[in-house]
Specification:
Layout: E1 2-3, H1 15-21, H2 30-51, E2 54-59, E3 63-70, E4 79-83, E5 86-90, H3 92-105, E6 112-118, E7 122-129, H4 148-158, E8 164-171, H5 180-189, E9 193-198, E10 207-213, E11 217-219, E12 223-232, E13 236-244, E14 247-256, E15 259-268, E16 273-283, E17 295-303, E18 307-312, H6 324-332, E19 336-340, H7 349-352, E20 357-361, H8 370-383, E21 386-390, H9 405-409, E22 412-413, E23 425-432, E24 440-441, E25 444-445, H10 446-459, E26 466-472, E27 476-484, H11 488-495, E28 505-506, H12 507-518, E29 525-533, E30 537-538, H13 543-552, E31 555-562, H14 568-577, E32 579-585, H15 591-603, E33 607-608, E34 615-616, E35 635-636, E36 639-640, E37 645-649, E38 659-666, E39 669-674, H16 684-687, H17 692-703, E40 713-719, E41 722-728, E42 741-747, E43 753-762, E44 765-770, E45 776-785, E46 793-803, H18 816-824, E47 847-851, H19 853-872, H20 877-892, H21 902-923, H22 973-988
Helix pairs in contact: 2-19, 4-5, 6-17, 10-11, 10-15, 12-13
């Protein structure tokens, strides 16, 4: 007997008060009051026990079984099974399904069964049910791990408490994460029995790459050995390849023996930087089961002169080579530079980390993917890399950097905040919203990218500008505006809500509609941006003449073609007629960057071409040893960030000062913005300057991530679900570096960053933990500062670590003993015959808990009318006799006997006596002379024996009183009595 809410039992303390208030009196009703008090106490007790949740435990007579089926990858290895029809190849997972089906056929109708599938997580495949049918397993789970503990806990939550409970585990026993023994102990404490059905695994010609180790530090051109460990299930030959970055560093074959094979591969260190060595094996013989265990990586830091990556514009405006002089300056300064086009900029962090810094030379954002720009941002912020942006007519705001990861990493913003420097501009953006714009690219529709581009154009407006956005197919479906620049936020919000339509874009109708709107504007600069499909631009006739008329009216046109197609020549032609620019893009993701660069180009004042001498505003190591600088002829206008260091500014005739050279600390890295160019266009006097090479060498070296404390060692150990970073920090002289503020940024393969604080645990030793979530290469940037020397980096080291493939692919031999030990913790064991699963033979049968509060409440309600009846009803012996008489009649089904006439006769006699008394009063009453209307009191006569059947005692007659004289007539006995009283009072007087 238990209580779910035992606090309500404190109400029992009020029962004595109830007894005191209802104590019975000493009168004749004492018995009834005692009975009523007892009933009230019983009702109160029932209600209190009901509120307290009284429960009783009874033996459970139903059995609930949960089948826990291993669905991880290790259960997919095919095995050969002998059947009546011959050998059949089948996976353990399929065998488990067949076993569960057979077991359900033997389930009694009152029992319940459910199914749970588990891998990296556990899911309920089938809730508890008495249905004996199961078609197949349909749940989709992650199969990279085997977490049996989570499956057991889920099974405990699924099993009802009022049944006998059993779990049946069907698995190969290869647990890779979690603690199944702790979960089994919880099951044993809950009275749940675990039975197991082990499955064996047949090994093929499996080769498993178990470890790859490389020296943590190397020097350029140093010969070293890459240590590789391979486990093989049999003798076989495998191919082996080692990739250093994207280059093949080693390729050959290895003959493996059964068991562990340790081999060394000779390699030569390459150029300085962070090198990743990826080892791949390819078994030649058939039978290799998993490809996941055939690749591993290792990392080394190659010391030497820094290597930087220079990204150049392959199609510079005016065909001017933007990088020639800059590359020569870097070479003269012994800085190794690798030159690539925008497509060569790595989008993977391990490849990007091979370089000490990245230099973008007049590179427009439309030539870079979003993934490339995000990788650069993460590389600088989280890995301490460097970034230098060199200007030109295709960079910064003109290059579409607005609201990109590049802008976030640079010390300048793309907008010029001084609105007075810009002409008043009217924009009309005509966007194709035909059916083709509903196609997705990278999970985003083309229409959404176009919407984002139009929204950014609106956001770049100044208060005196004006914009109209038209989404057109065969008709102007969505029209936003004209809206002034003061409502640019509303315009951007509306633009981002436009969705795709149908059909193709009617170019003539669209241009006519947009032209009629823009002609109404009085602004000096009026510009149309047409975004159209290169393969679906209809209604071309008359468009050239219309564009020419618009151009004659001072309205320009630029065209963006999405994809190459038969309509591209037409679109390019009308852009030339309209005096604007033509942009062809195969990647819809570049649409926002193209439209923002168009907006900046139209506003014109983003390019400032005027001769001036830069003025130094702040000291910087970049200008170390440089006291005077030559003049410049132009730059791209930007705005310096508040937290950035503006080193050089312009000094124009109108007094404006814009940033020319700015730098800042961005996360763990540094970035520099040079808003002029590095060629003879704007910097012709700098190219011939004697300190030109020195200047650029100091710019680049400022951004380099220095690996301070050469004796620093970074190690990562992986245990369970967490990994531990351990850093041993020493100076070049071998002295322990204590008391540092140590931080590590861990960048995963998916680009996510975890910040880990490292605490000192020993002399010069620091440690911290993080949780790796994705398999692959992790980059770790460790930075330590001495609080006593603010700003001086005592430790700066980049390391790599690989979370190898899941343990699911490391061991291919089943472990039935693991499952049996697990079952024994709960008093269970192994199973062979599926018919034994639903036997009611649990050694410790469960007891079901039944709540009693509904019965207690019902009984209290039933007793309440009885209590009322005891207090309100009085039953005599005569009532009981009549009730008993009627009950006998009802039970014997005989007619009721006639009622005895005695009582009726007595009543009749009494009524007759009353009538005689009334007659005597009306006829024989004496009258007083002169008062005939006064009636004397009636004389009551005693009835005779003939009138009353029962003997009656008579009273002797009294003498007749003297007549009374009434002063006023009366018409009743009460009036006569009143008159006699008054007469008597008068006589006394």
């Amino acid at each position: 007997m238990t209580f779910t809410s035992p606090l309500f039992l404190f109400l029992l303390l009020f029962l004595p008060l109830l007894i005191w208030l209802g104590r019975p009196s000493r009168g004749p009703s004492r018995v009834r009051e005692l009975v009523s008090l007892g009933l009230r106490l019983l009702i109160a007790l029932l209600l209190i026990l009901g509120l307290a949740g009284l429960e009783i435990r009874l033996p459970a007579n139903r059995l609930a079984v949960v089948f826990i089926v291993d669905a991880s990858d290790s259960m997919t290895i095919p095995a050969t099974v002998n059947t009546d029809t011959g050998p059949v190849t089948i996976t353990p997972r399929q065998l488990a399904l067949a076993y569960v089906r057979d077991a359900l056929k033997n389930m009694p109708p009152d029992d319940l069964a459910g199914v749970i599938l588990f891998g990296s997580e556990a899911l309920v495949e089938r809730p508890l049910s008495s249905d004996p049918e199961l078609e197949s397993f349909t749940s989709k789970i992650t199969t990279l791990q085997t977490d049996l503990a989570e499956a057991i806990r889920l099974g405990l939550a699924l099993l009802p408490a009022d049944t006998a409970r059993r779990m049946v585990i069907l698995s190969d026993g290869l647990e890779t994460t979690g603690d199944a023994f702790e979960a089994a102990k919880l099951a044993a404490a809950s009275g749940v029995e675990i039975r197991v059905i082990p499955f064996g695994v047949e090994n093929g010609a499996e080769a498993i790459l178990t470890s790859v180790r490389a020296p943590s530090r190397l020097r350029t051109d140093e010969e070293f050995s890459l240590e590789v460990s391979i486990e093989s299930t049999r003798e076989q030959t495998v191919g082996v390849r080692v990739l250093a970055g994207a280059a093949i560093a080693y390729e050959g074959t290895l003959k493996l023996n059964k068991g562990i094979n340790n081999v060394t591969l000779p390699l030569v260190a390459g150029t300085p930087g962070f090198a990743a060595y990826r080892v791949q094996i390819s078994p030649i013989a058939e039978g290799d089961t998993f490809y996941q265990n055939n690749e591993l990586s290792a990392f080394s830091q190659i010391e030497g002169p820094p290597k930087v990556l220079v990204v150049i514009n392959p199609a510079p405006r005016d065909a001017i080579d933007e990088s020639k002089e800059l590359l020569q300056a870097l070479q003269d300064s012994n800085i190794i530079a690798e030159v690539v086009p925008p497509t060569g900029l790595p989008s993977e962090l391990p490849a990007l980390s091979e370089y000490a810094s990245v230099i973008l030379v007049d590179v427009p954002a439309k030539d870079l993917t979003q993934r490339q720009m995000t990788a650069v941002q993460t590389y600088v912020r989280d890995l301490g890399g460097g970034l230098v942006a060199v200007g030109g007519p295709s960079a910064y705001g003109l290059g579409g950097y607005y609201k990109t990861p590049l802008e976030a990493a640079l010390p300048v913003e793309m907008q010029i905040k001084d609105q007075q420097r810009f002409p008043k501009v009217t924009f009309v953006v005509i966007m194709d919203k035909s059916g083709s714009m509903g196609a997705t690219e990278g999970g985003v529709t083309k229409m959404r990218l176009a919407d984002e581009g139009a929204a950014r154009v609106a956001e770049l407006m100044h208060d005196f500008d004006e914009i109209t956005i038209i989404a057109f197919d065969t008709l102007p479906v969505d029209v936003i505006g004209p809206l002034p620049g003061t409502q640019k936020e509303e315009a951007a919000k509306l633009a981002r809500s436009i969705g795709p339509g149908g059909g193709g874009i009617y170019v003539f109708d669209a241009m006519t509609f947009g032209g009629n709107i823009i002609r109404q504007s009085a602004n000096a600069t009026r510009h149309i941006i047409l975004l159209s499909d290169g393969s679906d631009s209809e209604q071309q006739e008359g468009v050239r003449q219309l564009v020419q008329q618009l151009y004659d009216d001072g309205i320009t046109l630029s065209v963006v073609s999405i994809g190459s197609g038969p309509d591209v020549p037409f679109l390019k032609d009308i852009a030339a007629i309209g005096g604007g620019r033509f942009h062809l893009t195969e990647a819809a993701s570049s649409i926002p960057d193209i439209l923002t660069s168009e907006a900046a180009e139209v506003q014109r004042n983003y390019i400032i071409e005027e001769t001036f001498f830069p003025i130094q505003r702040a000291p910087s190591p970049i200008l170390s040893g440089i006291s005077n600088v030559p003049s410049l002829q132009g730059y791209v206008g930007t705005t310096a960030r508040e937290t950035a260091t503006t080193i050089l500014v312009s000094q124009l005739a109108d007094g404006n000062q814009d940033p020319i050279l700015a730098a800042w600390q961005y996360g763990l890295g540094k970035s520099v913005a040079w808003t002029s160019d590095a060629t003879g266009r704007w910097a012709k006097n700098w190219v011939t300057w004697e300190d030109y090479a020195r200047f650029w060498a100091q710019v680049v070296r400022y951004t380099l991530s220095t690996n301070a404390a050469a004796n620093t060692d970074v190690r990562v150990t992986h245990t369970g679900e967490d990994a531990t970073i351990t850093v041993d920090a020493k100076s070049d002289q071998g002295v322990y570096l204590n008391g540092l503020t140590m931080l590590a940024n861990v960048v995963g393969p998916d680009g996510t960053t975890q910040a880990v604080t490292l605490l000192q645990i020993g002399p010069g030793q620091y440690s911290g933990e993080f949780t790796p979530l994705v398999e692959g290469a992790y980059l770790i940037r460790v930075a330590g500062n001495d609080p006593a020397h603010a700003g001086a980096e005592a430790v700066g080291q980049t390391a790599g670590w690989v979370l190898s493939y899941s343990p699911e692919y490391r061991t291919l031999e089943s472990d039935p003993n693991f499952l049996l030990r697990l079952a024994q913790l709960t008093g269970g064991g192994g199973l062979e015959d599926s018919a034994d699963i639903f036997k009611h033979d649990l050694t410790a049968p469960a007891r079901a808990t039944r709540p009693l509060w509904p019965s207690l409440l019902l009984l209290a309600v039933a007793l309440l009318p009885l209590d009322v009846a005891v207090r309100r009803l009085v039953l005599t012996r005569y009532d009981l006799q009549r009730a008993w008489s009627k009950a006998r009649v009802w039970l014997t089904l005989r007619p009721a006997p006639a009622a005895p006439p005695q009582r009726a006769e007595q009543l009749s006699s009494l009524f007759k006596a009353k009538d005689r008394a009334g007659a005597i009063l009306s006829t024989n009453a004496p009258r007083t002379p002169g008062h005939e209307d006064v009636m004397v009191p009636p004389i009551v006569t005693t009835p005779t024996k003939s009138d009353i059947p029962a003997p009656i005692v008579t009273t002797p007659p009294k003498p007749t009183p003297p007549p009374l004289v009434a002063s006023t007539p009366v018409a009743s006995t009460s009036s006569a009595l009143l008159a006699r009283k008054k007469a008597r009072e008068k006589k006394t007087d």
